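User: Could you go from structure to sequence for me? I need the amino acid at each position, not a summary. Structure tokens:
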């Protein structure tokens, strides 16, 4: 007995979609050079590592991964610095990059803009 043609087409479409999305995602990950950090979970990222006291959790992570680390909060990549020298490097010497970032709600309410 032959399977229905719509079933064969659906399976072929899903297989080709998975193949091509794997190629494009693999290329994208190779292009991005992030600092070291813990491996994220698929949907929640590294939010499970941030406890009720985030500053202590980030301090423990910085002891493991160094003063500059990469985390994912949900689907958002986050670069965390935990040393004054590294923060000065970002905010003083690379200020043009951060000045062009769009304003979000958290930044609006914490900086009184």
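Assistant: Here is the amino acid at each position, in order:
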């Amino acid at each position: 007995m032959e399977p229905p043609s719509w079933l064969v087409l659906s399976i072929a479409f899903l297989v080709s979609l998975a193949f091509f999305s794997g190629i494009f995602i693999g290329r994208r990950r190779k292009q991005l050079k992030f600092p070291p950090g813990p491996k994220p979970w698929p949907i929640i990222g590294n939010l499970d590592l941030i406890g009720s006291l985030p500053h202590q959790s980030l301090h423990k992570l910085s002891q493991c991964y160094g003063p500059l680390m990469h985390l994912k909060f949900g689907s958002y990549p986050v670069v965390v610095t935990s040393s004054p020298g590294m923060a000065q490097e970002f905010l003083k010497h690379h200020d043009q990059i951060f000045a062009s970032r769009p304003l979000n709600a958290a930044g609006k309410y914490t900086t009184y803009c």
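One structural detail worth keeping in mind: The beta strands are 68-73, 76-81.
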